[in-house]
Amino acid sequence: MKKLTLLLLTAAIVAVFTLPIAACKKDNSALCNYEIIAEYDGQKTVSAVMNFTYYNDCENEISDLKFNLYANAYRQNARQKPISQTYLDKAFYNGESFGKIEILSVDNCSSWQVCGSDENVLLVSLLTPIYPENTVKISVKYTLELAQVNHRTGVTERAVNLGNFYPVLCHYEKSGFYECEYYSCGDPFVSDCANYTVQLTVPKSYVIASSGNLVKSNESGEKLVCEYELKRARDFAAVLSQNFKTESATLGDCTVTYYYYDDANPQMKLNAAVQSLQYFSDVFGKYVYPTLSVVQTGFCYAGMEYPALCMISDKLKNDDAIYTIVHENAHQWWYAMVGNDQINSAWQDEGLAEYSTLLFFENAPEYGFTKTAILGNAIKNYRAYFTVYKQIFGDANTQMTRSLTDFTSEYEYVNICYNKGLIAFDTIKNSLGEEKFFKALKHYYSNGLYKTAKPEDLIACFCGDDSDLEGLIRAFLDGKIII
Ligand SMILES: [Zn+2]
User: Fold this and answer.
1) Which pLDDT band, with edges at 50, 70 and 90, does 174 fall under?
2) In-domain check, residue 474
3) CATH of the domain at 119
4) What's the CA-to-centroid distance between 106 and ligand 1, angstroms?
């Protein structure tokens, strides 16, 4: 994600992975599969059926499945609010509004219930245990009620955001399925790669931007029916609008499309999207998806990343929109293709995305963002945060690896994960030199592709047996560096 508070800029030892990575499966046949058939009524309701095939890649049998119900965070009595006080006015453009996901039925199971600490989990007890490398198919019927909100899931002023619009299988770790609560700070998501087939039906006045590759489309009466495919992705999102215009370009075998409704210079945004995709492919590794949708929409922050799709706030001015597009595109590498635990080590994708943005602009001076300005701004903001926290609270916790719940404010989160993250990666690059730095990130990409990388995996890529550099990085992460 990109926070608005960051957009203050004016145009102005290579190692081998030795530590385990929690893995998605190795090929398409051995992945979970989502087949989602959803219809939006043009108002505030999505009616859907999700046929989900679970593939057990664990070492033990599985008797229950758990799914995150992120959309329930928008309900009236949610314990964890999806949006902090700071952003309420930007988010709720029409006053307070609520939404929810209601599970109507689950087939092919012995029982099911909505549970979790905040009605945020669908627990499905299977008819029989599923042994390793076996599959089971269940069918979930549900309705999604959309709040009027400029946020990930909701009806915005000129578009409809369908992020997290279905039950998402919880990430599995040795301790079991990992239930995500919906924190207002950061991106509270951890998910594994799966295959998707998504059929979206909308009133035919709508244009659909989605994560997937369009494989079928037809009009039926007053409705438009589109079917999309997306392979080996850790999420699927769409944005619907009656106002979208589009500009497209191809880059190799990828089609990049900019969806917009209020932009005097759409070609410039498309160019920034294509150029950054090209640059990141060159320096990190191939972009694996057949499409990329860059989508202008109502959003209370600057932008939000999903696999093969990013949401860009329609409130951003030209330069801020370009900066945000590049930041969200960097997330295709750091979050979408190489995943990480965004709840407990948000710096890993946000810090890298922010530093990748700096690297792109350093190599594309025509946009007017200089390394000096971006880095200087990060240092200035970080020091301001540190001073403010020292004065107000008597101390500033500058630890980077910690849960989203351990940040006392979004201001602290942004300064630790984005600004300090950017400063840390620049320090690492200075220490390693350019060649080794990029070689390490290429290694991180190729080893982490489709997987969920841990902080140790990233550290090992940079450090190998260089204990001095590892000590430096750990000092950053533990909050023992003075900047
Ligand atoms: Zn981000």
Assistant:
1) confident
2) yes
3) 2.60.40.1730
4) 35
